[in-house]
Amino acid sequence: MIDLRSDTVTTPTEKMRRSMFEAEVGDDVYQDDPTVNKLQELAAEKIGKEAALFVPSGTFGNQLAIFTHTLRGDEVIVPSSNHIFVHEVGAPAVISNVQLRTIDDPYGMPSIDKIAKAIRNEDIHNPRTGLICMENAHSSGKVIPIDYLENVHKLARKCSIPVHLDGARIFNAAIALNVDAKQIASSADSVMFCLSKGLSAPVGSILAGTKDFVAKARKGRKLMGGGMRQAGVLAAAGIIALNEMIDRLAEDHENAKLLANLLDEIPQIHVLKDQLDINMVFFSFNTIEPEIFVGKMLENGVKINPPHEGIYRFVTHKDISKEDIYTVVKIIKRIVKI
């Protein structure tokens, strides 16, 4: 089965499975799981932060960051297209008792002027602006330029507001921008990134920041049910992910561009060529009803998601080879009878 639904479907490597089996463990709530501690130290170094915390998922990490940075009743500024607003089940209202102030932008880059205007002043009627949230790489498949993030952070510092970066795919962004991930993370006070997407670990994400921030977040993690005890069994795979799986993300980007070029040769398909920065291919295809197309692809051994607002998304990852891409395109051509 060729699975193009997401890079969350990646399976752990044999080395990961072996390391999980052999992992030295302890009780991480007491901070004496040596494998978790090693992962956290490695993650902090990779991202250029003082400390890091292993958490169950990306959504958990983002919500823990909001919970740690804000006070009840605060307002959090976030672009309307960002994962925190679109795909995290309204969690800021439930967990942190904050409201989101969204700024419309399809690629997560509203103008600095719009962000500045969204920051609340001290009027008695206003909530406090407690946090600004950015996302890089963005879920649209685009990456956010370094200078833009620096300008957001400069504005936030001027107003004494922290910045959190949803960096679920920060290493994809770093490859696309040809920079070290540390440079991207330097424009945020806290950063979350996923181990379980393109890096292929089976479970887990990282939340990183200052030592004081992580100490506070650790208690919040416990409150949110994230004290995972002998979590070294999972952290072991994360260590392999950070040591061995980052550089190979470039292969996923190359495969995505190959897929986009091949799909673009099919007359019925329109590829969104301005959203090809990372490992995602977005396209419209209206010749066949979505449920029929998804069903026919599955009958031919290819898993895809239905379109969102008329746009399909295919995602390349470790388990998708160049041969798989040629196979997928042949299947589509057969379905549309080219």
Automatic annotation (TrEMBL):
Which GO biological process annotations does it have? glycine biosynthetic process; L-threonine catabolic process
What CDD domains would the database entry show? Answer: TA_like
* UniProt xrefs under Gene3D superfamilies: Aspartate Aminotransferase, domain 1 (3.90.1150.10), Type I PLP-dependent aspartate aminotransferase-like (Major domain) (3.40.640.10)
User: GO molecular function: any one?
Assistant: L-allo-threonine aldolase activity
Q: Name one GO cellular component term.
A: cytosol
Q: Which residues form the Aromatic amino acid beta-eliminating lyase/threonine aldolase domain?
A: 3-283
Enzyme Commission number, as recorded:
4.1.2.5
Pfam family name, one: Beta_elim_lyase
Names of required cofactors: pyridoxal 5'-phosphate
Q: Which residues carry this modification: N6-(pyridoxal phosphate)lysine?
A: 197
Q: Which UniProt keywords apply?
A: Lyase, Pyridoxal phosphate
Give the UniProt family note. Belongs to the threonine aldolase family.
Q: Which PANTHER family does the record match to this protein?
A: L-THREONINE ALDOLASE, L-THREONINE ALDOLASE-RELATED
Q: Any idea what this protein is called? A: Threonine aldolase
